[in-house]
Design a protein that fits this description.
The complex is a heterotrimer of chains A (about 300), B (about 220) and C (about 130). Chain A is of the alpha/beta class and about 300 residues long. Chain A has helices spanning about 5-10, 30-40, 60-70, 85-95, 125-135, 165-180, 190-205, 220-230, 240-245, 250-270, 285-295, and strands at about 15-20, 45, 75, 100-105, 155-160, 185-190, 210-215, 275-280. The longest helix of chain A has 18 residues, at about 250-270. Chain B folds into 2 domains: about 1-115, Response regulator (Rossmann fold), CATH 3.40.50.2300; about 135-195, no CATH class. Chain B has helices at about 10-15, 30-35, 40-55, 75, 80-85, 95-105, 150, 180-190, 195; strands at about 1-5, 20-25, 60-65, 90, 110, 115-125, 125-130. A 4-stranded parallel β-sheet of chain B has the order 3-2-4-5, with helices on both faces. Chain B is elongated. With about 130 residues, chain C is α/β, with parallel strands linked by helices. Chain C is built from 4 helices and 4 strands; from the N terminus they run βαβαβαβα. The chains are: A alpha/beta (about 300), B alpha/beta (about 220), C alpha/beta (about 130). The interface of B and C includes residues 9, 47, 49 and 55 of B.
């Protein structure tokens, strides 16, 4: 039985989380495979919410699956597809079924996804969502009504340490910290100096929040370039693209795993942050390799 | 001002296909300024329609007229004689103008030749950029005069989001600036970044209940 | 304007060249109609479209060489308008090649004739293609 994530955050030296992304369709077979593979190797599994604005099986559904199989889940909630009524209702449901951790996100734009003509909601954004969860946690809803059963979610959010320019991004981070978060899982970072700069800022405002370094393994120069151009919040630096370009043909994934593990090991050894969050989209079965190479298994 | 763009020609041709005699109605205000539906554009579109239908040996009879402001019933009334003589009206005005014509001449089919897109200002010659979302709850005092509802692609009140591209460009369109980076720079220039550091609670989206209505006080 | 080639000629360049053509008795297609304008930039989109509506085979705008427009950017604007007219024509299924912009100097009567002849040849070719369909 997995440990309560809130407990883990309080007591573990280096926390590791990964993703179990839902798939497109009512079948949860593939997700179950990933859950079985990873649930005992990481401290919690995040479940994304219509990730990249592509319609998929709902996050809460896979969170329940994780709980049923003895894992610890982090429910990702974006503001793109639901208004404040739906979000509050969904959170009450999630809590009632044993989901204890929430990651608050604004959400990618509709345009990067596969239903490009849909109406974006964005009734709220991530900082307001964090406040919303606190409100539910206090036993009330956003309209001030007393709840017939509240929540006590452990609250997390994201940040983009590689943002350029960084200053506006940090204004937003500060608002999130002031709203009160238990953990931050960053977007992918490939340059640890950016992480250091980010941690300096965070610690100035909050000594207790746990920061997990976002790791998105890149398995080829072309993929890196594609991600730079198309995936919001990801900036793969040129020297990594070069390193990937020089890798012999067919060794892309291995190289990607190597770079990822290298970043995690360094962050851990130099105590740069409190953990790592591994997002290996579409290649969840290779996550254990990263964990092993990083010395986390 | 209101910005509109001409619809694809195929759409327009299809709309008026059943009609032999059509009035093309332009507007002398916003759509004239953005080169979409003024007198000149009415002339060009009418010529195009005649050429298109002439090609098929189908003689198109077009009448052209432009009023100063198509959203005013009194001004649209001036078109009565011309409207009486046609089977349908093709309006090049914004949605407000098109609907006014439709209301004043209720028995006449009225078609939109343009798509009304946004409220905006010229960014350069011939280039217009949206800058007001008509949300009814103006936030410009808190953002150094830059509207987060439309300059930010997601319309968020505590920005930026995590998707800002390198150099401060928007996640959605690399040619557009991240609205919140613009707000940051503006407030920084004025030494008022405290405004951006403030937390803004969720917006009241029901300030203006559609259709919006305003009663001005008669003085 | 049935089947005519309408040529809007800038008085500083093309019209002067056309004048020489006339005076020297050089040959040019019969169906040419020269219209004098103070600058190529005087010609607007509606002029080109209406000329075609009235049966012109082609509408040409002839102005000064690049950088030599007496009104600085008249020939540049004319070029943009001709290009735009092309797209407006193509939109409604009409050959965009029926409008065109050309640059020449006042002392180039032979260039003038060359331009007109080439346009005329293209018109004849198009007629042949249409007939054979």
């Amino acid at each position: 039985m997995a440990r309560d994530f809130r407990e883990t955050l309080k007591t573990k030296d280096f926390i590791v989380t990964a993703e179990a992304a839902p798939t497109k369709g009512s079948s949860v077979e593939r997700s179950l495979e990933h859950i079985e593979l990873l649930k005992d190797k990481v401290d919690a599994l995040n479940v994304t919410d219509n990730q990249s604005s592509v319609m998929r099986y709902p996050s809460v559904g896979i969170c329940l699956l994780i709980k049923e199989h003895g894992g610890e889940a982090v429910l990702q909630v974006t503001c793109r597809d639901r208004n404040r009524l739906a979000i509050q209702a969904d959170l009450l449901f999630a809590w009632s079924r044993g989901v204890r951790n929430v990651l608050c996100l604004t959400g990618d734009s509709i345009d990067v996804g596969d239903h490009k003509e849909a109406k974006p909601v964005f009734d709220l954004e991530s900082a307001q969502l964090i406040h919303l969860v606190h409100t539910l946690n206090s036993g009330k809803d956003m309209a001030g009504n007393e709840l017939n059963g509240g929540t006590d979610f452990c609250i997390g959010t994201t940040a983009t340490p590689s943002a350029d320019p960084i200053e506006p991004q940090l204004v937003k981070v500060q608002k999130k910290l002031e709203a009160g978060v238990d953990f931050i899982q960053t977007q992918a970072v490939y340059d640890l100096d950016e992480l250091k700069r980010f941690m300096e800022f965070v610690r100035k405002h909050d000594q207790k929040v746990k920061v997990l370094l976002g790791i998105v393994p890149v398995v080829g120069a072309k993929m890196a370039q594609y991600m730079n151009d198309n995936v919001p919040g990801i900036f793969v630096p040129q020297y990594i693209i070069d390193e990937l370009a020089q890798a012999p043909k067919g060794t892309g994934i291995t190289k990607g795993v190597e770079i990822a593990a290298r970043l995690i090991r360094k962050a851990k050894e130099e105590k740069l942050c409190d953990g790592a969050h591994i997002m290996f989209i579409g290649k969840e079965e290779r996550v254990p390799e990263i964990l092993e190479a990083a010395g986390l298994l | 001002m209101i910005v509109a763009e001409r619809k694809p020609i195929e759409e327009i041709l299809q709309m008026i296909a059943p009609y032999k005699k059509v009035l093309l109605a332009g507007c002398g205000t916003c759509v004239t300024i953005c080169w979409t539906g003024g007198e000149k554009e009415v002339g060009i579109l009418a010529s195009q329609l005649r050429l298109a239908r002439g090609k098929e040996g189908d003689k198109a009879d077009t009448v052209e007229a432009t009023v100063e402001r198509q959203c005013e019933k009194e001004m649209v009334e001036e078109l009565r004689d011309k409207v009486d003589g046609v089977e349908a009206v093709l309006s090049l005005a914004c949605g407000a103008g098109i609907q006014t014509i439709a209301e004043v001449f209720e028995d006449k089919p009225v078609f939109p030749a343009v798509n009304t897109t946004f409220l905006g200002s010229p960014e350069g010659e011939g280039v217009w950029l949206e800058n007001c979302g008509a949300c009814g709850d103006c936030f410009l005092d808190r953002t150094g005069g830059i509207c987060p509802m439309v300059r930010c692609a997601k319309g968020i009140l505590n920005g930026p989001c995590g998707g800002t591209r390198k150099g401060g460009k928007c996640e959605i369109d690399p040619d557009k600036d991240c609205g919140w980076v613009l707000i940051y720079r503006r407030l920084e220039k004025q030494g008022r970044l405290d405004l951006m550091r403030k937390y803004y609670p969720p917006k009241n989206f029901r300030v203006v209940k559609r259709p919006g209505k305003m009663q001005a006080i008669k003085a | 304007m049935n089947g005519e080639i309408i040529a809007f000629c800038c008085e500083h360049s093309a019209y002067a060249a056309a004048d020489v053509v006339g005076k020297q008795g050089l040959h040019y297609p019969e169906k040419l109609r020269v219209i004098r304008v103070p600058c190529a930039g005087r010609v607007d989109i509606i002029h080109m479209l209406k000329a075609l509506e009235e049966g012109a085979a082609a509408v040409l705008v002839l102005g000064c060489e690049d950088g030599l427009c007496q009104h600085l950017t008249g020939n540049v604007r004319a070029k943009e308008r001709v290009k735009y007219s092309e797209t407006l024509l193509t939109e409604v299924g009409i050959d965009g090649g029926r409008v065109g912009m050309f640059n020449l100097a006042a002392n180039a009567p032979h260039k003038f004739i060359k331009i007109i002849n080439e346009v005329n040849d293209r018109i004849k070719e198009r007629e042949r293609e249409n007939d054979s369909r």
